[in-house]
Amino acid sequence: MMRTFTGVPASAGVAIGRVRVYAGNAPPEVPRRAVPAGEVPAELERLRKAVSEAAGEVKALLDDAAGGGGDDGPRLKERADIFQAHLLMLEDAEFIDEIADRLKRSRRCAEWAVRDVSAKLCRKLMKMPDPAFRERAADVADVSRRIIDRLLCVTRGPCAADFGDDAVLVARDLMPSDALLLDKSGVKGIALDEGGVTSHTAILARAFGIPAVVGLSNASAALRDGQAIILNGSTGAVIVDPDAETLELQGAEKRRDAARAGRLSALRDLPAVTLDGHGVALLANIGFPEEADGLHRHGAEGVGLYRSEFLFMEPGKAADEEAQCAAYSRVLKAMGERPVTIRTMDVGGDKVAAGSRAADEKNPLLGCRAIRLSLANPDLFKTQLRALLRAGVHGNLRIMFPLICCAEEVEQARALLDEARAECAERGQPFADDVKVGIMVEVPSAAISADILAERSDFFSVGTNDLIQYSLAADRGNEKVSHLGDSHHPAVLRLVKRTIDAAREKGIGSCVCGELAGDPAATAILLGFGLKEFSMNAPAIPAIKEIIRGATMESCRALAAAVLRGRSVAEVRALVDEWMAVNFPGRG
User: Fold this and answer.
1) Which CATH superfamily is domain 3-24+159-241 in?
2) How confident is the model at residue 69 (pLDDT cuts 50, 70, 90)?
């Protein structure tokens, strides 16, 4: 009998094939063996040897990936980036020392100490509100599993060997190192009980063009090898033992997707210009340096939002100035002359950076986070600012401060930036001295006083994700109220319009970098508001460009004016649907 599972779309496309359940990445049984005091030195040496062997394995894989090229070059580059991250963790003295200290204090075997420390770090990451950091827990688990395998002499084979040519891989989860092997298999789709859209598995699936659905809860336990399966990575539906009618419908959708992908691919190198000649810039949002290398495949004209938080969270401490400078430089070099806007650290609450003194807070979303935490920790903040300025010599850098609420915060942040410049000069370090400095508008006070903030900013970037939840008092991470946070709420759209208008009147640029920018249903509204720069997840760029190239500014302005008179979300969305039906009939 046909069954349907619903998960989270992670990589677009339809896969039709047979179930192949994979359980080979299950963690080994870890003993909790006591270690006599006299044997602790030997156990520490055993740990050191296992870490060294694990690092050797990763280095070999890294060398293999780094030596690739040709048609498989981009995929090998994805591998190299992830293996490099794992190698850095294995070479992180603080991480390994914490395991050794745990072993000495507990007098338990090395395997147990590795599992205990990594499990605590994973729990810390999983508590973070940003899914990008929750999913970094998979990297910690992957590295610890590799060390434990060496301690237990466990050998693992490729995760996707002999799967056949029509396999849809179903698993509880995939370690990043398992996911890296998917491009050499016959896997047509990936269905995971766990994971999210920013996990390394999801990133790789998108890079390889493999449809994927995550967050399916219990699919791996409910399904068995050989069952017929349809996986829709665009809707999040996974259909098992489909009937003939469903098979035909999904097959037709797969053909339409292929046709649409070809149509959108043809737009990659074309400008984002309306039918009546109004051009805008389409930029990409990224969270990790490795994402910059593939942005050209989607036609990105730069990076509108580079979230720097990962440098302050893995593997449990803030990156030093040199590591930060290297990460920023990598993105700037990859983008060449195209602009790269790097947001300073947006951490705080239960997402606390090492070196800060932030205490536990009852409501971290309204607490000491983002620019507040940076200003409260000037040494940590100036380290980041120096790294940014030094990296700026490699490209077109723009620096952006998050969660600005008032002009005083901009003044304080700029003063610390001036100090960072002076320190670079005093040390004789080359740095960029002509960097544009902007702010994120993501709270109502910033949108309402945008005319004041524009006097001390070179540009605005509207972070609609936070603007929505702060304006509507609906925590987007709380499933009980998240549905209230609709991007088409009249209040939200009026705040966005107010910000764009203030920027234009003061002669500075404005961008929208939240999910609203990548929503085709909002493109015409934002164009009508006068927005000149959109920043979104890179795969969304072609669809947004299609809307822009098929619209006129006259029709967009008319829609925007009507929307601003809207009284409810339903009314606004009805206006957009009507506009789409007139301007893009039959769009698929």
Assistant:
1) Phosphohistidine domain (3.50.30.10)
2) very low
